[in-house]
UniProtKB/TrEMBL annotation:
Residues 126-210 form the Late embryogenesis abundant protein LEA-2 subgroup domain. It is found in: Membrane. InterPro entries: LEA_2, NDR1-like. This is NDR1/HIN1-like 25. Residues 1-11 have a biased composition (Basic and acidic residues). It comes from Forsythia ovata. It is a single-pass membrane protein. Its main location: membrane. Residues 1-53 are annotated as: Disordered.
Amino acid sequence: MADHQRIHPVQDPEAAAAPQTPTAPLVPRGSSRSDKGDPPESYPPFRRTIPYAPLKPPRRRSCCKKCLCWTISLLLLQILILGILAAIIYFVFQPKIPKYSVDAMRITQFNLGNDNSLSATFNVNITARNPNKKIGIYYEGGSHLSVWYTGTKLCEGSLPKFYQGHRNTTLLNLTLTGKTQDANGLLQSLQARQQTGNIPLRLRGKVPVRIKLGKLKLMKWKFLVRCGLVVDTLSADNVIRIRESNCKFRFRL
């Protein structure tokens, strides 16, 4: 029986002598490859982005705005109350403006001094009429009357304190005095106007009064009087004739 021979692989000496170069693995380490191939790449689902707009905090009224609103409300309320009171007074008492007139005027002094100052003293008769049926007038102290010629004050005085009742007429005899410095030009102008017989004068008055409604005495008011006068002469101790007299009146707090 023939002997069995064993074949042993013989190593090629040239191959053994040549250096072996490393080859890259077909599959990276730590990964596995499926028989079905690489899986398809997956992406996150598409989402529509909406820009973010922060919500504005609700506006709050500051203390200043609240105070302003309250102040305006109170003022409107006061105006409404005053309007109602004025309407009641008007319909109940039917107020009428007092009337005044300059009835006569006499000059006791009107001369030029050595220092070129003009001294004047006027006696003026004024009639004050109260046409109201239910309203009285208290004339308070601190009144002021003055007579002017073309912007220059000639004399001044005041009214006495008195009470004028309902539908009352009061005659007032007032003395007004004054002194004007450097009156040469003023006296020449007066003499030129005196030749024409028309000398314009202005009577101004500021009189504090209190109105009495029944038994109620109201707050103090200022009664303003403006009278335009035209006289024929300003000579002392002569009868002065008042050619024109036009008076206007108004109240002021």
